[in-house]
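Sanity check

After download, print the first record. It should look like this:
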Amino acid sequence: METANQLTLDELRAMVDHASKYFQDRLFPLQQKMDDEEWFPEEEFRALGDMGLMGITIPPEYGGQGLNYLATGMLGEAMAMANPALAFSWTSHDNLCTDALFRNGNEDQRRRYIPDMCAGKKIGALGMTEPGAGSDALGSMRTTARREGDHYVLNGTKLFITNGPVADVIIVYAKTAPELGGKGISAFIVEKGFPGFKVAQKLDKMGFRGSPTGELVFEDCIVPAENLLGEENRGHVVMMSGLDVERALSAPLCIGPAQRALDLALDHASTRRQFGAPIGTFQLVQAKLADMYVQVEVARTFLHRVLTECDNMDVSNAGRGDIHKLCAAALMQASRAGTFVMNEAVQIFGGSGYMRDTEVNRLYRSTKVLEIAAGSQEIRQIIIAKELLGKLT
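Expected structure tokens:
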């Protein structure tokens, strides 16, 4: 397959259109059961690897597609339109774990894990958040790892971990030098079968139901020394190099559902009649639809610009500067747009939009977490402001 740098935007759109048909045919019908039962369609998820829809940024020689972050974002939006919950799990697998492992892993680690992750044979997750460590993930982290000969021993708990209950491979952060605070953290590749690792519970969520989220416990968990990802006490570098891209690639999880909600609202406004006319003929409803459209288009256009910047960035510059600011801004804008569009869509649907079994209600319940995950809106505002003010001082 050609690399993304050789694909024109029209070619990327054609590729996404082709994938969208598959998402609509196979993934869209799964939504209701996923929402009702918090059911994860593992076979369909793993089948994405057979379809060449995993390992999007990974070079073909490792089993990936060799595309770029812009392509990943466009595919993520299309998947999130058809099935937001599955897209949430896909993003965690493909970006937070597979892409991060490839960028930071050595050749042995790449060869051991990446091909199976691209093929859907192994599902990935990222273990960073803890019960007492959310926005202050580095400073408040309590999970520890100590070296004992040819292995490390991990102890601690990770919470709200997407794909945690079903993951085969997890990138886990732990303090190897607690006295150094946030600079004493290391990253590890943990397999579900390692002694001392267990899934404590699967969590019941308001939205993105069917994307499994869990609590992970490490009790004297044995991790081979060769599974250290990057250098010891340099886990903050691994983390920051991925967090910017994570924010940018979380934005499609807002934009895809928002576009779907807009489409549903347009259809409802055309067919729902009150006072002898379709409600879409009323100017107040028209104003809502116009505002929704602008919010989606602005968020998408800005995101594509930011993803293009990500494709051209030097990874060593991640976590600071323009790319840090832009990625935070892309997710802040996209999540705001998602919240606005969902709220207006439910308002247009009226009483039926408040019913739990409607699609627009399901979309509405999935929106809020993107104002919290990958650093809250407030954290994003702080990042943006600090970068702006830093240039003035």
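If your output differs, re-run the checksum step. Summary of this record's structure: The two ends are 47 Å apart (CA to CA).
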